[in-house]
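Translate sequence into structure tokens.
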Amino acid sequence: MINAFARVMVYQSHAIVLPTVKENDMFSIFDGFDANCCLLTTSCTLTSSMLTMLENDDAQVKVCGSYGSLKAALSDDTTINYIFIDLDSFDGIAAQFDTIKKLRETHADKSVVLLSSDFAMNEYGTHRLMLADVSLRLPVTMSSLEIALMQAPVNNKTWCHRMAATQDVAATPAPVRQFQHESSAA
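Result follows.
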């Protein structure tokens, strides 16, 4: 017997019943995924919706109402691997630019996801790496959140490689840097 959420695959004229998927887990791809998240927001509505979606993916979630409590949470729990920042709760990106940039540099190993209703669309690319790995337009959908959970660590690796390259260049004495530049131009 196949229930409404069973998936059937036909392969060479044989029907194969794939594992049953619960209705609320239809898009869940993170069974056993170790997402340990901090959500920085003052919005009760966003807190409720994000908790529901993240916990549906078996993620652990800590909610912080200020940058001070976020800093404390990151100090207390080194297993946190995602930071979600609600820009709308703290006067937008311009007001927080320096704070987010410093947070990003201090905790370069954490995947950062920015949330805002001011974003025109979800951004999963690498053009905002100085501030975040992914940017999501509010309200967040389950599918966009799951894409963000997959893409943010990929982009974060790129960010960490760029940070390491920048530190290597900064550690190289100026005359050597100049020589390397001249020799690469030749």
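Note: Confidence is low (pLDDT under 50) at residues 1-32.
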